Amino acid sequence: MEKHVNVVAALFIGLSIFGLVIALFAAVILGLVGGFVDDPVASKVLPIIASVIIWIMIIFSLPGIVAGVGLFRRKEWARILTLILSVIKLLNVPVGTAVGIYSIWVLVQDETVALFKPPFEKKEVHLT
Fold first, then answer.
1. How far from chain centre, in Å, is Cα 103?
2. What are phi and psi of 126, to 5 degrees?
3. Is 84 exposed, middle or buried (0-12, 13-18, 19+ CB in 10 A)?
4. CA 20, CA 27: separation in Å to the nearest integer?
5. pLDDT tens-digit readout, 62-83
6. pLDDT tens across 13-32, in order?
């Protein structure tokens, strides 16, 4: 399951960075269009919409990056955060749904939960 956890971490980081790139691209396009439009209202509104899009995408993407880095470091809080983000991703059809289902499946397995326990809890003591 360790490989699956690494895949989930990479997916979350990669998709979050991709979301930031798309947001930046959309903001640049809207800003450029706002400069070429003859309508004075549109030329003022489009850059505002572009900045709102960037901030919304930052707010939605940063938790995914943080969760992915935390998963690579095997932090329990990252597993919980990733589960929460995975449930939210289910609404993003089709890619987010696939990533959400896969992430939930990986992170609720008993073997995966054991990976995130502190080292002193991982040791098994057999008294015979």
1. 11
2. -110, 115
3. exposed
4. 10
5. 999 999 999 999 999 999 999 9
6. 999 999 999 988 988 888 78
How many angstroms separate the CA atoms of 64 and 71, rounded? 10
Q: Contact at 8 Å (CB) between 17 and 69? A: no
Query: What are the domain boundaries of the chain?
Result: 2-113
CB 51 within 8 A of CB 31: no
d(CA 1, CA 109): 8
**Radius of gyration for the chain, computed over Cα atoms and rounded to the nearest angstrom:** 20
DSSP 8-state secondary structure symbol assigned to residue 37: -
Q: How far apart are CA 99 and CA 12, in angstroms?
A: 8
Place of tokens 């059809």: 93
